[in-house]
Amino acid sequence: MWGFLIFCLFMNLILTFNADGATEFNKMSKALKMTGTRPSIESVAELPEDEVRDELTAIASFDGSLYDSYEVSSELTSGYIRKVSGSPMAVSILESKYDKVQERVDHLADIEADKDVYAGSYTSICYKELFTSFLPALTAESSILAMLLTVYLFSYETNTNTYYLIACTRKGRKIDTCKLITALTSSLLFYVILSTFSLLIYFGHWNYEGIWDSNISSMYNIISDAIVRKPFITVTDLTVRQYIIATLALGTVLITVAVLFSSVIGLLVKKTYAAGLLTLIIPTFGVFLSTIFSNTGLWGAYLLTSMLPINIWTSQHAWFTEGGLFAPCMWYEVKGLVSALIIFTILTICTLRFTHRRDIA
C-alpha cells in the first residue's frame, strides 16, 4: 500500500511538471494579486509594462456582459434536446433541469460573476490541468488504493489459511466489523496524505495566490463538450478556492463508497485476486453500459446510469455545474454519491449480518 502511495505521488509529480503554460499563468496570478479579481484601469496602470498588463488593460476597459444576455433555452437546451430528441424521457429530464439553470444564469448576471478575471486568457489552461487532469487522477488513485486495501484486509485469513479458525465462532466472524472500520479510516487517511503532498507540489509549481477568491464562473471560464461551447455555470456561487475544497470534500464521499463497495465484494469473495478483479470489472461495466446506451440512442437510460459512482467520477471536471449530458439534474454528483453511500451502507450491513450468522462456516 505504501509503495502504491509513493507511485501515485510520483505520477502526480509528472502531471504537475509535464504541463505547459505555468510560467505565463504565474505572471497573470501575480498581477491579479496586485489588482484584485476585478481590476480597474487605475490598478492595472501600476503594473510593469508587459503582455499581462496589456491583457488586463483590455479586460478592465471591456464593458460587456456574458450572463446578462445569455439565454439557456437557445444556447444550451436546444442543442442538448436535438441530441436526445429520440428519447421523450431524456427530453423531459433535460427540459426540467434547464428551466432551473436559467435561474442560476440570472443570478450570476445579478452578482456580475463574469466580471471576475479568474486567470484571463490562461483560464482554460489552469482549469484543464487542475480540474480535468490532476484532481480526477487524485480521486482515482485514492479510490483504487482504498479498494485494494479493503480487499486485502477481508481476504487476509484466506491467504494465511486461518479463515476457518476465525469463522468457526460467531465472535470470531465479528472481526469483519473491525476490518471495515480499519479500511475506512485507513483509506481516508491515505487520501489526506496523498492529497496534501500532491497539492503542495502542484501549488508550488502553479501559483494561485492572485485567483483564489475569483468567482469560478468567470467570463473567461468557457468549457466545451461534444455538443456546445458554454460558460462554467455552477449550481451555487463558488470561488476557485471553494470549488477546489468542494471537489476534495466530495472525493471523500466517493472513496467511502469505494470502501463500502469493496467490503461487500471482500466479504462475499474471500480470495484476494478474484475480489480485486471484481472491484475493477464491475465499475468498468457501469462505464460500458453507459456507452452502449449513448451509442444506441437510449438517452433516458444513459442519463440515469450517469448517476453511477464510476460515471460521476468520469465527469468530475463538471462537478457542481449544470453538467450537460453528464447530468440528469442539478447537484447530480451529490445526489448520486449520497444515494450510493446509503445503498452500499445497507448492503454492507446486510452482508456483515449474513457472515455473522452462527451456521455460516
List keywords for this structure.
361 residues; two-stranded antiparallel sheet; 16 helices
Low-pLDDT windows of residues? none
Domain count? 1
Distance between the termini: 30 Å
Beta fraction = under 5%
Question: Which word captures the global form?
Answer: globular
Structural class label: mainly alpha
- What order do the SSEs take from the amino end to the carboxyl end, as H and E? HHHHHHHHHHHEEHHHHH
Structure description:
This protein has 361 residues and is an all-alpha fold. It has one domain (2-22, 91-355). It contains 16 helices and 2 strands. The chain has helices at 2-17, 22-35, 41-45, 51-61, 72-83, 88-110, 123-154, 156-159, 163-167, 170-173, 175-205, 240-268, 272-295, 299-305, 309-314, 332-355; strands at residues 222-224, 229-231. Strand 1 and strand 2 (229-231) form a beta hairpin.
SSE layout and pairing:
Layout: H1 2-17, H2 22-35, H3 41-45, H4 51-61, H5 72-83, H6 88-110, H7 123-154, H8 156-159, H9 163-167, H10 170-173, H11 175-205, E1 222-224, E2 229-231, H12 240-268, H13 272-295, H14 299-305, H15 309-314, H16 332-355
Antiparallel strand pairs: 1-2
